[in-house]
Specification:
Oligomer: single chain
Shape: elongated
Largest sheet: 3 strands, mixed
Structural class: mainly alpha
Helix content: 40-55%
Distance between the termini: 52 Å
Order of helices and strands: HHHHHHHHHHHEHEEHH
Number of domains: 3
Number of helices: 14
Radius of gyration: 22 Å
Strand order of the largest sheet: 1-2-3
């Protein structure tokens, strides 16, 4: 038996969402057939899901996202038109938005948060783990078109008693490091932030040097208020 998506192809020859597919989804939502709505949309690529969300009514968008629950593809959010995206974020519970942000690159997460008002931002950020929250809060403090906003802020944290050599070896061997990073966070055993060490300072220090001895406030090699076009 063919699955629902193959019975109702998403796009027509022009690349638009097919009316038949749209009607299948809206009929499922209207009738409360959550299983049907999920079967139609769970396997959609995030860009396709975003296009579908944009052609739904506001109430249907909320119903679909609720139907998908934890399996809603967070990567669809940056693909949405700004007005639709902001409306969707306002409809989603803060806990669900926080979970979605953790699935995105940090610059995408900032992109989603920056147009929300401060109260909404704080409500969502309060649901995030400590380090993710601190990183996003720092980025949001920079001017909108600055290098600070452009930088990804995924974090690398090490204990204060590690040496520079241990830190460098860890960065060489770890397979889940951020694509770009400029500093290392130093945290105590209770995961409280002690400070940061700029990557260039680590590379200039001798291997036996202990990390907590070189914590530095000068953390960004690019001035964070420089316009993004100047950085590029």
């Amino acid at each position: 038996m063919q699955d629902a998506v193959s019975n109702f192809p998403l796009r027509d020859e022009e690349g638009d969402v097919r009316p038949e597919f749209l009607h299948a989804v809206t009929d499922a939502l209207e009738s409360g057939d959550i299983a049907r709505a999920r079967s139609l949309t769970l396997d959609l690529h995030e860009a396709d899901l975003a296009d579908l969300i944009e052609v739904l009514r506001q109430d249907e968008r909320a119903e679909l996202i609720e139907a998908l629950g934890d399996e809603f593809k967070a990567a669809a959010l940056p693909e949405l038109d700004e007005a639709v995206r902001d409306q969707v974020l306002e409809e989603m519970p803060p806990e669900q938005v926080a979970e979605a942000l953790q699935e995105l690159e940090s610059d995408e997460a900032v992109y989603l948060l920056e147009d929300l008002d401060r109260e909404e931002q704080e409500d969502i950020l309060s649901k995030l783990p400590y380090f993710e929250r601190v990183a996003l809060q720092r980025s949001l403090e920079y001017p909108e078109d600055s290098a600070g906003r452009m930088m990804q802020t995924d974090l690398i944290a090490v204990p204060p008693f590690w040496s520079v050599g241990q830190t460098i070896d860890y960065m060489r061997e770890a397979d889940d490091l951020p694509e770009r990073f400029y500093e290392i966070f130093v945290v105590d055993p209770a995961y409280h932030l002690m400070g940061c060490v700029a990557l260039n300072k680590i590379l200039r220090s001798k291997r036996p040097t202990q990390m907590d001895s070189i914590i530095d406030e000068e953390m960004h090699p690019i001035p964070v208020a420089v316009d993004q076009e100047e950085v590029a």
